[in-house]
Design brief:
mainly beta; seven-stranded mixed sheet; single chain; globular; four-stranded antiparallel sheet; 58% strand
């Protein structure tokens, strides 16, 4: 079993910043990539940013230049969010792809709420 625990969400004014953190724990054979997805109210979950074990990154067009994904180590990833907009309001989910125990299914965190409002 592997667990992803997110932290760092909250309420922020437009133009403000937040940093999300995600830590993986459990029986982990190896992590190929970690990332952040979000689900705005009434919409489907969408990709925000991903980072591979080789530190290659990928971003949604809507966050390029404002958000930065990075890793502290193989099991912890951050999402620095700057110049936040009301449309960034969503539940943000951490995702990991790799191998844990006898499983290789993608793993998801419980989500953390980010609200951008004045």
């Amino acid at each position: 079993q592997v667990q992803l625990v997110e932290s760092g969400g909250g309420l922020v004014q437009p133009g403000g910043s937040l940093r999300l953190s995600c830590a993986a724990s459990g029986v982990i054979n190896g992590i190929n990539a970690m990332g952040w997805y979000r689900q705005p109210p009434g919409k489907q979950r969408e990709l925000v940013a991903t980072i591979t074990s080789g530190v290659s990154t990928n971003y949604a067009d809507s966050v390029k230049g404002r958000f930065t994904i990075s890793k502290a180590n193989a099991k912890r990833v951050y999402l620095q969010m700057n110049s936040l907009k009301p449309e960034d309001t969503a539940v943000y989910y951490c995702n990991a792809e790799g191998s844990w125990g006898s499983s290789s299914d993608p793993c998801w965190g419980q989500g953390t709420q980010v609200t951008v409002s004045s």
